[in-house]
Amino acid sequence: MPVFEEQRAYLKAHQAEAQQRLLAWFAGNARDLPWRHNRTPYRVWISEVMLQQTQVQTVRDYYVRFMERLPTIEALAQASLQDVLKLWEGLGYYSRARALHRAARELLAKYGGVLPADVKALQQLPGIGAYTAGAIGSIAFGIPAPAIDGNVRRVMARVLALEKPSRAQLDAAIRLWMPEDAAGAFNEGLMEPGALICRPQLPACSRCPWQALCRARQAGQQEAFPTPKPRKRIPHYDVPAAITLRDDQSILVARRRQEDMLGGLWEFPGGKRKAGETLEEALRREIHEEMAIEIAVGELWIKVRHAYTHFRITLYAFNCRLVAGEPRCIECDDFRWATLDELDDLPMAVTDRKVAQVVKQKLA
């Protein structure tokens, strides 16, 4: 059974109270966020995608700039992927931006530029999974569909004292408490304490609208639910990169292949150091494998540390010069010799943008 009988009985017994408490609390405590104004399905969609694995404070300015530049599905579909990636620069998880762009073009071709008011149809679009479809469906269209992210999972696990809740259990539990006439407000109301109050450690239970309903709190074991997942070892890689200059001070940059991590972004070419290599040896090998050229590796201009979700890197960017061959893309999507001004217009990951800033300082 998705929800054990004891829990089902508890949910049904407290359904009206849970709804009243959460909706009243949310009405008086909802944060003033830009995507909560002038709501349209498109604006809801963009905000929910941006908020995936990204903090609200980070998203605010990106969202405002994105909507100013691309205010409609048609505008997004007609924009170039490079323009979309440039607007997304620094927000991370760039596959979201690529999926948005593909989805907008699909919406224009199949749905007349309108998001479908159907959760299953939404899930067929690029980049929209169960959570995002539930959020869009409930907030934009009033469809009673759960939107279960990590914060919601934690809240419901504590309310029901579930150590390892399955998605099916959480889905069934939320549907029992969700009012059909206020699905969007209920989902948002449930996300809000998950983000602000029901933290993984030291939850602020005295501020929670469901404190009287929380079985974990009644047992004094809030932090025991849900059972924490074991932490995995996070690998680290050294990544040398080449700032290859010509006499006219143009710089060699390459665009990552669309299917690769950070696909579509421009970079100073390079790659991971293998065991036993020096940074300089690794860089010469990577540049030859990627672009079929030979370079002389000079001074280290900048070292950048960066953490991704599943690994960390230290990027070492060296001043280099071309000594043999003409660049061609073997393991990249495109390349160019860019001027300093052109570097500003190319979408780059955070690490490469920091390198670009140092290049401009050095060559100014």
Task: Write structural notes for this entry.
The chain is α+β, with helices and mostly antiparallel strands and 364 residues long. It has 2 domains: 5-224, Endonuclease III, domain 1; 236-363, Nucleoside Triphosphate Pyrophosphohydrolase. The protein is 46% helix and 13% strand. The chain has 16 helices and 6 strands. It has helices at 5-13, 15-29, 41-50, 56-69, 73-78, 81-88, 95-110, 119-123, 130-141, 150-160, 167-177, 183-196, 215-218, 279-291, 340-345, 350-363; strands at 236-245, 251-255, 266-267, 294-307, 312-324, 334-338. The strands form 2 sheets. A 3-stranded mixed sheet has the order 1-5-4. A 3-stranded antiparallel sheet has the order 3-2-6. A hairpin with a 4-residue loop joins strand 4 (294-307) and strand 5. The longest helix is centred in the N-terminal third of the chain and has 16 residues, at 95-110. The radius of gyration is 24 Å and the shape is elongated. The N and C termini lie far apart (67 Å). The model has no long low-confidence stretch (mean pLDDT 96).
Question: Tags for this entry?
Answer:
2 domains; Nucleoside Triphosphate Pyrophosphohydrolase; three-stranded mixed β-sheet; 16 helices; 6 strands; 364 residues; alpha+beta; Endonuclease III, domain 1
